[in-house]
């Protein structure tokens, strides 16, 4: 009888283990500090660069992978793994998925550490190029990217922010130079350029936050170049080490913003 029980569990243990560990585009991968989903290119022949994404307030990693296919497909088409982080429930205009940004409230989680932990966990599943990890985010997710870039940028080669802003109180200074590309809607009323109060918390002035990044990342506040297209009006510092673009619109996003983000990233980090 004991031998039969042993053989039963021995036979099914691998199956149970594989099921418990399976995660990816259709199910969450779990860490001690949170969950994430990912999707990888079909053909993996070398170490893969990574796009890490903080979703907007109220969204999820599941929604990002299933609905925001323009983001995911843009990364996959260029050979990147797309890693979508899951926010945590916050009492902020209702209980929805958000991020523990630096807004003067007691932090619920260190989002920079969570993002790094997700990348390290994924590195145990896929061959990743950890020198080419791009941290991106939209809206409040963009705020989490800015917080990481300013306070704890280690482990990320570049940062791209869409319609995000630092929250008040703004830090006195950022900790280390970074490569940052910030895109913002000219008529944004959710995270307006001048900042906005949400009860006890407020978004900060977008230009004030950008100035903090410039103070430590580039040699001069004077732009060394400008670029104007039908969609965006951009200014950049130190050969686009820091780049800022405005586009016409409200709190939505340009359809090809991820493509634009990857263009910038690959110009900054061309692998020999």
Overview of the structural elements:
By secondary structure, this protein is of the alpha/beta class. It has one domain (about 25-270): Rossmann fold, CATH 3.40.50. It has helices spanning about 1-20, 60-65, 70-75, 110-125, 140-150, 205-215, 255-270; strands at about 30, 35-40, 50-55, 80-85, 90, 95-100, 130-140, 160, 180-185, 195-200, 200, 225-230, 230-235, 240-245. The radius of gyration is 20 Å and the shape is globular. The model is unreliable at about 1-20 (pLDDT under 50).
| Number of strand segments | 14
Radius of gyration: 20 Å
Oligomer: single chain
* Largest sheet geometry: 10 strands, mixed
Count of separate DSSP helical elements: 7
Q: Helical proportion?
A: 25-40%
By CATH, the architecture is named: 3-Layer(aba) Sandwich
Low-confidence parts: 1-20
CATH third-level topology: Rossmann fold
Distance between the termini: 62 Å
Number of domains: 1
Give the CA-based shape: globular
Question: Which structural traits does this protein have?
Answer:
single chain, 10-stranded mixed β-sheet, 14 strands, signal, 7 helices, Rossmann fold, 272 residues
Helices and strands in order:
Blueprint: H1 2-21, E1 29-30, E2 35-39, E3 48-54, H2 61-67, H3 69-77, E4 81-85, E5 88-91, E6 95-98, H4 111-123, E7 128-138, H5 140-151, E8 158-162, E9 180-185, E10 197-198, E11 201-202, H6 206-217, E12 225-228, E13 232-237, E14 242-247, H7 257-268
Parallel strand pairs: 3-4, 3-7, 7-8, 8-9, 9-14
Antiparallel strand pairs: 1-2, 2-4, 5-6, 10-11, 12-13, 13-14
Helix pairs in contact: 2-3, 3-7
């Amino acid at each position: 009888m004991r031998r039969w029980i042993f053989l039963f569990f021995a036979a099914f243990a691998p199956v149970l283990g594989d099921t418990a560990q399976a995660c990816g585009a259709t199910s969450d991968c779990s860490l001690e500090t949170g969950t994430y989903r990912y999707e990888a290119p079909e053909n993996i022949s070398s170490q893969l660069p990574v796009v890490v994404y903080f979703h907007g307030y109220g969204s999820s990693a599941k929604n990002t992978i299933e609905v925001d296919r323009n983001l995911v497909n843009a990364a996959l088409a260029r050979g990147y793994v797309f890693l979508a982080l899951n926010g945590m429930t916050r009492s902020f205009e209702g209980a929805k998925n958000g991020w523990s940004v630096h807004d003067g409230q007691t932090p619920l989680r260190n989002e920079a550490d969570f993002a790094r932990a997700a990348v390290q966990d994924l590195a145990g599943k896929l061959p990743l190029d950890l020198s080419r990890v791009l941290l991106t985010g939209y809206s409040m997710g963009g705020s989490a990217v800015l917080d990481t870039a300013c306070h704890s940028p280690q482990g990320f080669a570049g940062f791209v922010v869409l319609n995000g802003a630092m929250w008040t109180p703004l830090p006195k200074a950022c900790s280390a130079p970074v490569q940052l590309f910030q895109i913002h809607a000219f008529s944004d009323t959710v995270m307006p350029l001048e900042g906005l109060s949400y009860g006890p918390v407020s978004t900060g002035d977008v230009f004030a936050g950008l100035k903090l990044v410039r103070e430590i990342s580039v040699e001069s506040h004077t732009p060394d170049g400008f670029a104007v297209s039908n969609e965006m009006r951009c200014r950049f510092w130190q050969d686009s080490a820091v780049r800022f673009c405005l586009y016409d619109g409200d709190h939505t996003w340009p359809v090809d913003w991820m493509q634009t983000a990857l263009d910038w990233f690959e110009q900054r980090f061309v692998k020999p």
